[in-house]
Write a structure and sequence with these properties.
Blueprint: H1 2-106, H2 109-121, H3 126-141, E1 144-146, E2 159-165, E3 174-180, E4 183-185, E5 188-191, E6 193-198
Parallel strand pairs: 2-6
Antiparallel strand pairs: 1-4, 3-6, 4-5
Helix pairs in contact: 2-3
Length: 199
């Protein structure tokens, strides 16, 4: 009889163990939910941190671009100033050289006048012809040319009118006589021609 009573007791305990298993399975979703809730703030903090760094990098980039633009403008202004200085220096140097060169050549013009007069008085003199030819070659080499005067239109830039006459045979402002020849080197006038102008 005692053995028959013990068997039912054992059979009753078995279902109790089976009931506890679902409780353990129910706790698993709750744990996952809590873990997800714990991870959510961490993800938000990471996103905020990334945004903060992104905005900071954007500001630094904009500042660097502005600084680069300013330096580029400074360079362009400095380069323009240098180019202006270089051109101005070259022009001053050229003008100074031409002025000194012209002054030196102007000092020889009386010699040319004397040679011209000597040719007029002694056109057959071989010595004077040889000197006049040599002087003419030197003037050509130095790019010195005689200013056109007799029969030309009067030009106040290269002619100096010291006399005036009425002459119906020639046109207005025509040069009828040259008292002293004028010379120029290139476009620079070394000496204006002294002339007589008609009408």
């Amino acid at each position: 009889m005692e053995e028959t009573k013990q068997t039912p007791e054992t059979e009753v305990k078995a279902p109790e163990t089976e009931v506890k298993a679902p409780e353990t399975e129910a706790k698993a979703p709750e744990t996952e939910a809590k873990a997800a809730e714990a991870e959510a703030p961490e993800t938000e903090r990471k996103e905020k941190k990334d945004k903060k760094f992104f905005h900071r990098d954007q500001k630094e980039l904009e500042a660097a671009k502005a600084q680069l633009a300013e330096k580029e403008n400074q360079y362009l202004r400095l380069y323009a100033e240098y180019e202006n200085f270089r051109k101005r220096s070259e022009k001053e140097k050229t003008d100074c050289y031409n002025s000194a060169y012209g002054d030196a050549l102007t000092a020889f013009l009386p010699l040319i006048d004397s040679m011209t007069q000597a040719m007029q008085f002694s056109p057959a003199d071989e010595g004077i012809k040889a000197l006049a030819k040599q002087l003419s070659d030197i003037l050509t080499k130095l790019n010195i040319t005689e200013i056109e005067s007799d029969g030309a239109q009067f030009d106040p830039n290269v002619h100096n009118a010291i006399m005036h006459e009425e002459n119906p045979e020639v046109g207005e402002n025509v040069i009828t006589q040259t008292f002293q020849k004028g010379y120029k080197r290139g476009e620079k006038v070394l000496r204006c021609a002294m002339v007589k102008v008609a009408n």
